[in-house]
Amino acid sequence: MTIKRFGIHGGVGTGGQHLPFARAVEAGGWLYVSGQTPMRDGEVVEGGVIEQSRIAIENCLEIMQEAGYGLQDVVHVKVILTDARYFQSFNKVFKEVFGEHPPARICAVADLVVDCKVEVDVTCYKGA
């Protein structure tokens, strides 16, 4: 089985630090996208949970597209919110993106290393 890593050279976090992990890894038809926060050009985009959720999901979708995967390939999503009160707002954005064919999902509340409201990662699958 071949393992392909995406974005291992140049991933940038807050303050311009180089991130020591791949943006995504593909193996055996599976694509694992690293957790994405609402960042643009290495800086967190300020805003409410709806705006931050859209950006975090868009960041996942951009990485998926780079790897040749689309929404139809998403099988599981992990979500971390920093406040349980964000749950309904996040669900609104999630439904806008995934529509009537949502993937499996887990949503938890925890502190994040980055000062934002949400982090999202996705797992995709494309058969041979």
From TrEMBL:
InterPro entries: RutC-like_sf, YjgF/YER057c/UK114
Pfam families with a match to the protein in the record: Ribonuc_L-PSP
GO cellular component: cytosol
Family: Belongs to the RutC family.
GO MF term (any one): deaminase activity
Name of the protein described by the UniProt record: Reactive intermediate/imine deaminase
Gene3D superfamilies xref list: RutC-like
Taxonomy of the source species: Bacteria, Pseudomonadati, Pseudomonadota, Gammaproteobacteria, Alteromonadales
Taxonomic superkingdom: Bacteria
